[in-house]
Amino acid sequence: MTKKSKEIFEVFFRRKPAMILVALRKNTKSRYGSVLAKEVDCTYSHAVKILQEMEKANLVDFDKQGRIKTIKLTESGERVAEHIERIQELL
Rounded distance, CA 79 to CA 76, Å? Predict the structure, then answer.
């Protein structure tokens, strides 16, 4: 993605939430919040806040096993992430 296309993409989408969805889609297994935060270059607390909003919108699911909480896309989250990737390619 060129610099100009990145700039126009960010006009339509907030970068971090969109990139979190795309990152979850690229890796099919469940992910950890700390790993996602590093991938999209934001703080853990900011990533968790975004992910909580995405959970409310039924885009992601949290799976807690003991102290470990993993995140995976829901069916609708998968579709949204796919469309974001398509738009990214067009820009």
Answer: 5
State the number of CA atoms in the 13 A half-sphere of 80 facing the CB: 18
53: number of Cβ within 10 Å: 12
Which domains are assigned to the chain?
3-90 (1.10.10.10)
Q: Tokens at residue 16, please?
A: 């971090």
The pTM (predicted TM-score) of the whole model is 0.80
Tens place of pLDDT per residue across the chain (91 aa) = 677 666 666 666 788 899 999 999 987 676 888 888 998 899 999 999 999 989 988 999 998 888 888 899 999 999 999 999 998 888 7
Contact 80/59 with Cβ under 8 angstroms? yes
